Amino acid sequence: MSPEIIDALAANAVFYEVFERRSSEAMEALWLDDDSVSCTHPGWPTLHGPAAVQQSWRRILGGPQHLQFIVSDERAHVVGDVAWVTCVENLLGDDGPQGSTAAINLFRRGPAGAWRMVAHHAGPVMQRP
Amino acid sequence: MSPEIIDALAANAVFYEVFERRSSEAMEALWLDDDSVSCTHPGWPTLHGPAAVQQSWRRILGGPQHLQFIVSDERAHVVGDVAWVTCVENLLGDDGPQGSTAAINLFRRGPAGAWRMVAHHAGPVMQRP
Fold first, then answer.
1. CA-nearest residue of chain A to B127?
2. pLDDT tier, A111 (very low <50, low <70, confident <90, very high otherwise)
3. Under 8 Å CB-to-CB from B102, ≥6 apart: which residues?
4. Domain A3-122 has CATH 3.10.450.50
5. All structural domains of chain B with their residue ranges
6. What is the DSSP letter of A107?
7. Cα–Cα distances in angstroms (integers) from residue A115 to residues A9, A74, A80, B13, B106, in the given order
8. C-beta atoms surrounding B73 within 10 Å
9. Quick one: pLDDT at residue B40?
10. How far is CA A38 from CA A43, A54, A112, A118, B96, in A?
């Protein structure tokens, strides 16, 4: 595994770690501050731009429910200054398993060379009978 | 709008045009033939690799229902050899409107310089009451 793939997987892991500990400040810091950013929470329409995206995170992270993620099947790809990671988010809430979502997370190298998130798109995976 | 943004939007439009006319051959041709490809149909788990992705398209495009897409809010971004487009897929089926999905489509410049799809992730948007 190349160093840049390892870095991209690490950036992805930080995203879920920040989500779990519900830090709006850390969440904002890991996103690129750029009009190109977009975020699609499960079942939501896509939000565009830093203001809308960060407002959604403040609401979600400030909400009453503590979500824990067991992230699985992470696969990272890097092309130049862009990385994308697909993974499965297995959610555990206060009341037990909350199902799973399929996610794709897109990162771009920021000014300091670190991966910064530019897109997060998570969709619910329907349970098979 | 830069030429490469116009090209990325055109690649995105071709994807939906191919989807509408249900050509498995054209769908396969517009994807990169590379293990990095992934596809998340609404409600499905993410499929990885050309074999699984193309098999899913053959099943969907070979199915009985004709879907028409009114694609809106397309926004394209290009960083080096990667482009991503977010858009809303407003579905019209044989029985009328089928709701909408939020999509992110990722393209990579192929060997011949044209944009080839490397990831498609579409998630259902829940109707607000």
1. A43
2. confident
3. A40, A44, A45, A46, A121, B86, B88, B89, B122, B123, B125
4. yes
5. 3-123
6. E
7. 10, 16, 12, 29, 18
8. 12
9. 98
10. 14, 10, 21, 6, 29
- Rounded Cα–Cα distance for residues B112 and B28 (Å): 16
Using an 8 Å CB-CB cutoff, list chain A residues near B48. 75, 86
ipTM: 0.94
CA distance B48 to A13: 20
Q: Tell me the sheet residues that pair with A107.
A: A83, A117
Candidates B106, B125, B126, B128; CA nearest to B39 is B106
Distance of alpha carbon B126 from alpha carbon A72, whole angstroms: 25
Length of chain B: 129
Indicate the residue of B77, B84, B125 with minimum beta-carbon distance to A45.
B125
How many Å apart are CA B27 and CA B8, to the nearest integer?
Answer: 16
Mean pLDDT over each residue of chain A, to the nearest integer: 93
Class of domain B3-123: alpha beta
Q: For the full predicted model, state whether its pTM sits above 0.90.
A: yes
- Structure tokens that stand for A31 in this block: 């996103």
| B115-124 vs B38-40, strand pairing mode | parallel
Nearest Cβ partner for B79 among A81, A88, A122? A81
Positions in chain B short of pLDDT 70: 128-129
Q: Smallest CA–CA separation between A82 and chain B, in Å?
A: 7
Token pair of A25, please? 């400040």
DSSP H helices in chain B? 3-21, 24-30, 49-61
In this structure, chain A runs to a length of 129
